[in-house]
Structure formats: C-alpha cells, structure tokens
Amino acid sequence: MGFAGVRSAVRLATAFPLLLLAFLAIAATTTAARADFRVCNATQNLVGVAIGYRASAGWITEGWWHVEGSTCKTLIEGQLSSRYYYLYAEDAERGGRWDGPINMCIADKEFKIVGVENCIPRGFQRAGFQEYDTGEQASWMVQLTDEPATDGTAAVTGTGSQ
User: Fold this and answer.
1) Distance in angstroms (rounded) separating the CA atoms of residues 161 and 33
2) Averaged pLDDT, 36-65
3) Number of domains making up the chain
4) Alpha helices in 30-106 (DSSP H)
5) DSSP strand E in 58-154: where?
6) Which of 35, 46, 88, 109 has the greatest count of CB atoms below 10 A from its CB?
7) Do both 54 and 120 map to the same domain?
8) Quick one: 67 and 24 in the same domain?
9) What is the pLDDT of residues 65-75, one digit of tens each?
10) What residue numbers bound the domain in which 121 lies?
11) What is the Cα–Cα distance from 60 to 52, expressed in whole angstroms?
C-alpha cells in the first residue's frame, strides 16, 4: 500500500468513531411515536382532570391530574387497552366543568375508585363524565377549550393519533 493509501486508511479510521458517535447521538434523541391517552388544556387556567375506564377489576375512576394552562398531560401511558374512556374536568380557577351524561365516582383528593355505583353512600361524590370512543386506536388526545362547540355540546374534542 502506498503513502496515499495509508493516509486514506488513517483518515477513515479517525472519521469512523466520529461518525459512530454522531449516529448514536441522533438515535438517542429520536423517539418512536408513543401510544397513550393525553389531555391538552387550551385554556389559560389550571384544570383538574379525572378519567374513567373499564378494567379487569371493573369500572375504575382516577384523578386528579393537574393540567396547567396551554399544556398537555399524559393520563394513561402506553397502548390503550379499552375502546371507551370517560373524562371529567374542572377549572380550578373559575369553577367551570367539562362533563357529560355518564355518572361515575370522584373524590376531593387524589383517588382511584373501583366501581361506579353508590358513590355517595361509599363516601364519594358523583360526577358526569363524557364518553370517548377511541375506536381502538393505540393513542388518543382530548383538548379542553374555553369556547363551547358550535352545536352546543361540551367544549371538548377528542382525536386518535398514530
């Protein structure tokens, strides 16, 4: 091998670790699409959110997630295991609500409640949750807004995402 061939081999041997390091840095910052159930708060106020779903133990409601104004929060991480999820939210500053016709149990402080029957006799409160049919999507996002929808329904939208 001539002098030019040796110089090329040395440059390649020097460049390879740098290229490998650059590739690893890019791979570490790139994440795959996550599957989860997220709530985005498009208002300027703090919002408390509760979720309901069906599990092997029966109906479960959980809360409270605090979602700051103009931010999103993941309520369920990973691929969704149910088709239907239920959401209830309260504006912590103005007292407004995002609710629906499905009654489930909630509590004043952080909670995980099994069962949706007899809320008050069991020491809980009853609240109306909005149903979201995720169509068995792997992930779902609900956006809470200030403005009511044009058809008069609650100011909440839900979308699946891949």
Assistant:
1) 9
2) 96
3) 2
4) none
5) 58-67, 71-77, 84-91, 97-98, 102-106, 111-114, 125-133, 139-144
6) 88
7) yes
8) no
9) 999 999 999 99
10) 36-161
11) 6
